[in-house]
Write a structure and sequence with these properties.
This protein has 284 residues and is α/β, with parallel strands linked by helices. The chain is built from eleven helices and eleven strands. The chain has a nine-stranded mixed sheet, sandwiched between helices. A two-stranded antiparallel ribbon has the order 4-5. The two termini are 14 Å apart.
Length: 284
């Protein structure tokens, strides 16, 4: 079972939902795919150990062999190569590492080197039987998706896998949620929350995975998010109230299921609803 926790924008509480769901289930693998700013461990406090570097290939051009034909620049869709009148210019951080330029070069003038763009770390908590893995994108590196994909190579399908995805609706989000069985969209009941929820719903519908909504900070704003969900036949899985007790625990970095056990039951009910939805979708 693979469940992604996503949101149309940052700050809606998806990490809160991911961490509390993992703790409520008591046996799970949690992958923090928000590799530009992984923060699940701010709430868990595991001892993390480095597992590996994430490398990305980039082209290196032998100017002695290059005939300035420009075919390498023509094939590059990301403008990582520019063909000038007297030389070829490279922009390694724009390169997605597809290798197309080296394949198309008839002169054999393009070789590939690799550079580290991030790392993967892992921590385990035996008391809750939770394994946490997170990716860390190096500062100034622009592409998060390769780190997310390599992080997901560690998925253990023998247990429940919870993905804390990046915020927004861009490529890193798609890389994080594309192979999931279900997606939980976390939002807040405000006009901004509704606007970004609509964008996120469009993305997961195009990907084609079942999804539901968690409303965080319920009690502020208005009813527009709920009205939208009802109109679009989107299940509302959980409503987390805008309450002082939860806010105080959050400010201290304490997952609220640890201090408010009734919420453990609420998250387990949500998980059972998700399982039921997946079963009905698959015809089981």
């Amino acid at each position: 079972m693979r469940i992604a926790i996503a949101s149309g924008k940052g700050g809606t509480g998806k990490t809160t939902v991911a961490v509390n769901l993992a703790l409520a289930l008591g046996s799970a693998q949690l992958l923090d795919c928000d590799v530009e700013e992984p923060n699940c461990n701010l709430f868990l406090g595991f001892d993390m150990e480095k597992q590996e570097d994430v490398f990305l290939p980039y082209p290196v051009i032998d100017q002695h062999k290059c005939t300035l034909c420009g075919r390498c620049a023509d094939i590059c869709q990301f403008n990582a190569i520019a063909s000038l009148s007297k030389s070829i210019m490279l922009f390694p951080k724009l390169c997605h590492g597809c290798g197309g330029c080296s394949l198309i070069c008839c002169e054999g003038a393009i070789l590939e080197k690799v550079r580290s763009i991030g790392t993967i770390e892992k921590g385990i908590d035996d008391s809750f039987n939770i394994e946490l893995l997170h990716g860390i994108l190096n500062i100034s590196e622009p592409m998060a998706s390769p780190v997310i994909r390599q992080l997901q190579e560690h998925i253990d399908d023998s247990t429940v896998v919870i993905i804390d995805s990046p915020p927004g609706t861009a490529c890193p989000v798609i890389a994080a949620v594309a192979d999931m069985d279900y997606c939980v969209l976390v939002t807040e009941p405000t006009p901004f929350g509704l606007n970004d929820l609509v964008l996120a719903v469009d993305v997961v519908r195009q990907i084609g995975i079942p999804f539901g909504v968690v409303i965080n900070r319920h009690g502020i704003g208005d009813d527009a998010v709920e009205e939208y969900c009802h109109a679009e036949n989107i299940p509302i899985l959980l409503k987390i109230p805008f309450g002082r007790d939860i806010a105080v625990l959050y400010s201290k970095g304490i997952p609220f299921v640890k201090e408010m056990p009734e919420w453990g039951s609420n998250f387990r009910d949500m998980y059972r609803n998700i399982c039921g939805c997946i079963s009905s979708e698959s015809g089981v």
